[in-house]
Design a protein that fits this description.
This protein is an alpha+beta fold. It is built from 3 helices and 5 strands, in the order αββαβββα.
Length: 147
């Protein structure tokens, strides 16, 4: 009888302990994962003032263009700069994770050498960025060194 009562009490405690709701305010954050497709990760950056992190993706021509001293996009270059707001990681103290997607900026160069810039933005458009300045910013990235 004692063992049956003990098993019942342990089961009751285990079931009630698992039903506690988590009131963590970060549970409502939605993490967006960007699929770069055929593009490879070239570099990344962090802006602590705006609490954003960015990842630059590009194709082989982009890697060649960023590795040259001229820093001019070659024909066929495709680069995407993806920017997220970052949040504290609830699983690791002191860590951060990507959260809300802020923008996806694209720089492309056609086979004639004409370079275009496009931005897809979740934020209200108060002013459009200077396209040439943004292209220069893309070209200022240094690719990760690969073994």
């Amino acid at each position: 009888m004692k063992s049956t009562l003990l098993i019942f009490m342990v089961s009751l405690i285990a079931l009630t302990a698992c039903s506690k709701k988590n009131n963590d305010k970060d549970n409502e954050l939605v993490r967006v994962v960007f699929n770069p497709g055929h593009l490879k990760l070239v570099s990344n950056s962090l802006n602590p003032k705006k609490k954003t992190m960015s990842a630059l993706y590009g194709n082989e021509q982009a890697l060649k263009s960023l590795s040259q001293e001229t820093r001019k996009p070659e024909a066929g270059t495709v680069m995407k700069l993806v920017t997220w707001r970052y949040h504290d990681n609830p699983q690791y103290i002191g860590g951060t994770i990507t959260g809300e997607l802020v923008s996806i900026e694209t720089v492309q160069t056609d086979h004639l050498g004409n370079t275009s810039y496009d931005i897809k933005n979740n934020q209200p458009r108060t002013s459009l960025p200077d396209k040439m300045e943004r292209i220069r910013y893309f070209m200022s990235y240094t690719p990760f060194s690969r073994p």
